[in-house]
Design goal:
6-stranded parallel beta sheet, 174 residues, 6 helices, alpha/beta, 6 strands
């Protein structure tokens, strides 16, 4: 982790490292203001790892959604164990820009619920997600419904993590 990295450091990164394509701020103190700086300055960002960043709230997820929609460069999003945003804000991200993401890692985001994951159900095969981590999501209780959404929207999926999913899956419901 990088506990010394905060929003001020993110603003510095914005000014001096505009061509960065892969950024890992996991376990840092980067919050919404830091994300705003990162998105404003790093136009070619393809991979953002913000695992265990509890200061990212709904505002930060909304900024992330706008970045994904506008720039269309982000392919990997790692928000594992980031618990500061609501399930509703993640729905916005999936609705706005998930079709461009190749990796969505949400494992350990305790606030994610079954209904939120239904954002993965889009027109059949329209999501380009190849790696999806839905592990350790205790609020997800309708495993079959979630897997149905994943199966219909994520036709290119090659890696799916479901360990610790909140409920057993009934194959007949798929």
């Amino acid at each position: 982790g990088c506990p010394g990295v905060d929003d001020a450091v993110a603003a510095h990164l914005r000014r001096h490292f505009a061509n960065v394509t892969d950024l890992d701020v996991s376990a840092s103190r980067v919050g919404d203001a830091g994300l705003d700086s990162i998105f404003a300055g790093m136009r070619w960002l393809a991979c953002l790892r913000a695992r265990k960043c509890g200061r990212i709230t709904e505002k930060g997820i909304t900024q992330l959604s706008a970045f994904v929609k506008l720039r269309q460069t982000l392919r990997t999003l790692d928000l594992r164990e980031a618990t500061g945003f609501s399930d509703d804000s993640r729905l916005l991200l999936l609705a706005e820009g998930a079709s461009r993401l190749h990796e969505i890692l949400l494992g350990g985001c305790r606030q994610v619920e079954s209904l939120g994951l239904l954002g993965l159900r889009r027109d059949v095969g329209t999501l380009d997600v190849r790696r999806l981590d839905l592990s350790q999501l205790p609020q997800v209780h309708q495993g079959a419904m979630v897997l149905g959404a994943v199966a219909s929207g994520c036709r290119h999926l090659v890696e799916l993590r479901l360990d610790g999913l909140g409920a057993a899956v009934d194959d007949s419901a798929l």
